[in-house]
Amino acid sequence: MIKILHLSDIHMGSGFSHGKVNPATGLNTRLEDFVKSLRHCIDKAIALPVDLVLFGGDAFPDATPPPYIQEAFAAEFRRLADANISTVLLVGNHDQHSQGNGGASLSIYRTLVVPGFIVGDSIKTYKITTKKGDLQVITLPWLTPATLFTRPETEGLSLEEVNGLLIKRLQLILEGEVRGLDRAIPTILLGHLMADYATLGSERFLAVGKGFTIPVSLLSRPEIDYVALGHVHKHQNLNKSNNPPVVYPGSIERVDFSEEKEDKGYVLVEIEKGKVNWEFCTLPVRKFCTIEVDVSGAEEPETAILKAIRKKEIQDAIVRLIYKIRSEQQELVKTATLEKALSLAHNYTIRAELVSQLARPRLPELGIGRTIEPLEALSTYLNNREDLQELQEEMLAAAEKLLAGDCEVYITTQNQLSFL
Ligand SMILES: [Mn+2]
Q: In what residue span(s) does the Calcineurin-like phosphoesterase domain sit (predicted)?
């Protein structure tokens, strides 16, 4: 059987605020963590060895990463070329320029003609020859209306109508690809997309803006033996009947706190025509740890916080401490004491949330009979939420982007903004 390693969502170069500079290398420790995880995957691919590596998209946080981050990524992937392992690099939303044409950060691999490398930046079927036989891979990069339509075709339509059109067009294009398949060899669909029924890292989420999703039924066709996905950071198989498996391997490192409780890893696949086995393999990634404690009723709030810290294993972890406290208790808690208790952590943040005894009065700016623009409303709201001060700038910027229709934002249960 043909052996494949399927990984996705590397996001190399993100989450630097959770790391620190390593004095020995001058690099952010989170870059080193992400490189280590990727190296683990590539080591595995070479050691087995696999016949093919499929990368499901989102290599970096954006399409123009700094050269040293590009280089760290390339140094790992070139080992696959050296080992004669075919590789498909699919273009995710983070790899595209905002104009939506081409995979800016990944197209260099095609330009350089790296042996055995394919860059999937359009819907196309590639036949790949391996030592164990041939197979074919349909690449389905991140789609936006701009990729499939000209502006006049979508002008005046609602977002929902555009999405409906997009699905119809995609269905036609996929149908075309499927008809051109070689029925004698195994087929994989490699896509960067949000599939219907995909659950995000957190259980409840609010998707706003361009929530373009593709129904699983469109992907799990009988002609396809394995659907390899990227985009969602939590590992999952969307087709419980497993014929074919529709698998997100998830990200290879925790990108933010919304992924605190998720296992991270890659997927090993064995495939021949009409038969597929797959298994999720976990990676030894750095721990994230949230310590949340309400000490507003405690007589000795500092002792209560220290006790909450001691309950968690924080060594080498990325920790955030959030404690609820009344304003008159604040002087009883010494930041230096908390910092000392957290010093075993790799990195930590401390946030005190003030518990107000009084109910908040209604904001005069939002009174009855007044109309207010969405951004102004958000800004007024944020100005009155002391606990959200830190997020204010980020939220306003995200809201502007959303209103301009530029991205998707998910607000997780931890009140975190997560950009997919
Ligand atoms: Mn993505």
A: 2-234
User: What are the tokens at 201?
Assistant: 């890292």
Cα 181 from chain centre: 31
- pLDDT value, residue 81: 95
Checking if the pLDDT of 187 tops 50, the result is yes
pLDDT at 419: 55
| 70 contact partners, CB below 8 Å, separation of at least 6 | 60, 105, 108
Model pTM? 0.81
CA angle (8 as vertex; 45, 282 as ends), nearest 5 = 65
Q: Which residues have beta carbons under 5 A from ligand 1 (an ion)?
A: 58, 92-93, 231, 420
Compute, in angstroms, the gap from residue 248 CA to the centroid of ligand 1: 11
CA distance 357 to 380: 22
Residue 420 Cα, ligand 1 centroid: separation in angstroms? 5
Mean pLDDT of 79-88: 96
Torsion of CA 163, 165, 168, 169, to 10 degrees: -110
- 229-239 pLDDT per residue, tens: 999 999 999 99
The CA distance from 134 to 345, in Å, is 49
Ligand 1 mean position to 12 CA, how many Å? 13
Asked if residues 267 and 227 have their Cβ atoms less than 8 Å apart, the reply is: no
Whole-number Å distance, alpha carbon 284 to ligand 1 midpoint, is: 22
Q: Strand order in 417-419's β-sheet?
A: 206-209, 408-411, 417-419
CA angle 236, 241, 243 (to 5 degrees): 95
Tokens of 78: 């070139």
Cα 59 to ligand 1 centre (Å): 9
Any idea of the CA torsion for 35, 40, 41, 42, to the nearest 10 degrees?
80
Return d(Cα 88, Cα 119) in angstroms, integer.
6
> How far is the C-alpha of 401 from the C-alpha of 416, rounded, in Å?
16
- Cα–Cα distance between 304 and 209 in angstroms, integer? 42
Average pLDDT for residues 346-352, to the nearest whole number?
A: 95
Q: Give me the percent of the chain exceeding a pLDDT of 90.
A: 63
Average pLDDT over residues 264-273: 97
| Structural domains in the chain, sorted by start | 2-282 (3.60.21.10), 288-358 (no CATH), 364-419 (no CATH)
- Say how many Å lie between the CA of residue 94 and the centre of ligand 1: 6
Taking residues 295-323, what's their average pLDDT? 95
